[in-house]
Write a structure and sequence with these properties.
Blueprint: E1 4-10, H1 23-32, E2 37-43, H2 57-78, E3 81-90, E4 100-105, H3 109-113, H4 123-132, E5 136-139, E6 161-166, H5 171-183, E7 188-191, E8 201-207, H6 214-222, E9 227-232
Parallel strand pairs: 1-2, 2-3, 5-6, 6-7
Antiparallel strand pairs: 1-8, 3-4, 4-5, 8-9
Bound molecules: zinc ion (2 copies).
C-alpha cells in the first residue's frame, strides 16, 4: 500500500530572501513527487526575509502570510494539503547574528501578530510563549556549520523534537543530529529545507493513512510514529 508523504520544511521566494522557487512552483513539484501535504516554513520576519523592516509589525505579518497563501491556492487546485508554520532564527539580540533555527508548528498567523517581541526575546522566552499556546518546536539542522551560525548550540529542554534528516545537510551533520535525538530521547523529525523546488533527495515523513491536520502530523511524530524517508527524485539524478 502506498504511503502518504509530507514535507515539513520548505521555503518560498515570496517570503524567504534565500528562496529560489515560488510557492506555486514548490507545490507543483511536490504534487509531481506524489506528496499528500506540504508545510510551508518561511524564515521569520527578522531572519532571511524579503519583508522590509521599515514597515510596521502588523504590515510585516500580513506580508509574511503570502508564501503560505499562494502555496495553499495551488495546493487546493492540485489536491495537496498545505499547512502554515515558520522557521524561527535565534538572533542573540543581534540582527542576523547568532543563528540557530527552530521550526515552529501549530500556531497561526494571529499568534505571530500578537507576539512582536518574538524576534528578539531569549530562547527560553520564545519556547515558553510557543508552548503556552500549544505550539511545537523542532530544532532544524542542529549541527549545521554555516557563516551565520556562530556556534553549534543545543537546547534539549526547550525543544520538542530534532530534525535528524535534513536533505540539504551533510551526512556528518545529519548523523550527529540522529545521535543527539537518540541520547536525549527526543522525537525525530525530517525535512528537505527546500529552497529550490526540484531536489536530488527529499526528507519526507510518511504515514499509512492521510493526515487530517498539521496537529495530527505533529502528534504522530512526537509519539514516535510515522517514518522518515529519504526520497530520491528520479527526474533529478545527480542534479
Ligand atoms: Zn533559507
Ligand atoms: Zn529552512
Amino acid at each position: 500500500m502506498g504511503k502518504f508523504l509530507y514535507e515539513m520544511h520548505c521555503h518560498t521566494n515570496e517570503v524567504s530572501r534565500c528562496g529560489k522557487v515560488s510557492a506555486a512552483g514548490l507545490i507543483e513539484n511536490y504534487y509531481r513527487m506524489g506528496f499528500s501535504g506540504v508545510c510551508i516554513t518561511d524564515h521569520d520576519i527578522d531572519a532571511s526575509s524579503t519583508i522590509s523592516k521599515k514597515l510596521s509589525w502588523d504590515e510585516r505579518v500580513t506580508l509574511f502570510e503570502k508564501g503560505y497563501a499562494e502555496a495553499k491556492k495551488k495546493g487546493d487546485e492540485l489536491g495537496v494539503d498545505v499547512f502554515f508554520a515558520w522557521e524561527y532564527s535565534y538572533h542573540c539580540g543581534l540582527q542576523y547574528a547568532g543563528g540557530n533555527d527552530f521550526l515552529t508548528y501549530c500556531l497561526d498567523i494571529d499568534w505571530m501578530r500578537n507576539h512582536p517581541e518574538m524576534s528578539l526575546c531569549s530562547l527560553p522566552e520564545y519556547s515558553n510563549a510557543v508552548h503556552a499556546d500549544g505550539g511545537v518546536i523542532v530544532h532544524a539542522h542542529p549541527f549545521r556549520e554555516e557563516g551565520y551560525i556562530d556556534m553549534i548550540r543545543l537546547n534539549p529542554r526547550i525543544i520538542d523534537a530534532v530534525e535528524v534528516f535534513n536533505a540539504g545537510r551533510t551526512d556528518k551533520e545529519n548523523k550527529m543530529a540522529e545521535i543527539y535525538a537518540e541520547v536525549y530521547e527526543l522525537p525525530k523529525w525530517a525535512g528537505s529545507d527546500n529552497h529550490v523546488g526540484k531536489m536530488p533527495v527529499y526528507g519526507a515523513v510518511a504515514f499509512d493513512r492521510k493526515m487530517s491536520s498539521l496537529r495530527e502530523i505533529c502528534d504522530e511524530l512526537l509519539a514516535g510514529r510515522g517514518e522518515i524517508i529519504k526520497l530520491q527524485d528520479k527526474d533529478n539524478v545527480g542534479g
